[in-house]
Amino acid sequence: MEKILVTGSKGMLGCDLCPILKKEGYKVIETDIDNLDITNFEITEKKLVKHNPNIIIHLAAYTDVDKAEDNIETARKINFEGTKNLAKICSKLDIKLIYISTDYVFDGLKNSPYEPQDKPNPINNYGLSKLEGENAVKKYCKNYIIARTSWLYGIYGKNFVETMLKLSNKENLKVVNDQTGCPTWTKDLSNALIKLIKENKIGIFHVCSSGQTTWYNFAKEIFNQMNLKVNISPCTTEEYKSTAKRPKYSVMNNNNIIRNWKSALYEYLELR
Ligand SMILES: NC(=O)c1ccc[n+]([C@@H]2O[C@H](COP(=O)([O-])OP(=O)(O)OC[C@H]3O[C@@H](n4cnc5c(N)ncnc54)[C@H](OP(=O)(O)O)[C@@H]3O)[C@@H](O)[C@H]2O)c1
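That is the input. Now the predicted structure with NAP docked in place:
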């Protein structure tokens, strides 16, 4: 069976992905900043030579979108330089590289779902650093998957679903209603990645849930499914005032690789 090394395995996605990979029978090497800092080329090369995996699923990233506006150097070091290190080593050692990217590589000016071949044009530093990572993967590797995902939630990390549930007793909760995207459960994403591996896919894929919603309607659906009566109203991005700009519309065409976001949310809320 194939050996898969995962970077950033202690993050929200990694904590769901690694057990699912093991259950599928893969030999999994879990790494994170404490035992493999991907920004250090020599250490990374040594580790990869030692473990000699067939595949790397590269999740490690600087993921704080707002803080990346002030910390562009740190975000670039991890998301671009770290990814470039992995891409160069994977090419040399003949390892397949699977890089998790984001809908935030797009500017959000389209009004129909983004296709994998659409031209990225990030409007914040996080999106820019992730796009530079994508470009490094394409430059150095032949055998790669760039899997763009969006609006992730799962039980192992800070995310919108858990934040809304914590805020559900707040008076007059305001939620942004002019950004539209695809909420995606980390478990659904993990299973879709395994499907792409099994089908020996190469290239860029959009790996998010089907359907689309705004943050406000996503929040309403969470409260409806939980039978919670919440005093919630819509607001604009401008009113909410966050540091980083976000695309108004980042829906991606996923070719039905993942089910509709509402049914995934239902299962997540049942299981959590
Ligand atoms: N969350 C979303 O909504 C979303 C949407 C689209 C795409 N993505 C992408 O999906 C992937 C997984 O996201 P996630 O939400 O699971 O992120 P996460 O919870 O922030 O996990 C990322 C992990 O990478 C680690 N890390 C940071 N710098 C590192 C380094 N230099 N070397 C090795 N590990 C390092 C982090 O450690 P520390 O916590 O100690 O920094 C953390 O454990 C990321 O590539 C992200 O860009 C996420």
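The chain has a mean pLDDT of 98.
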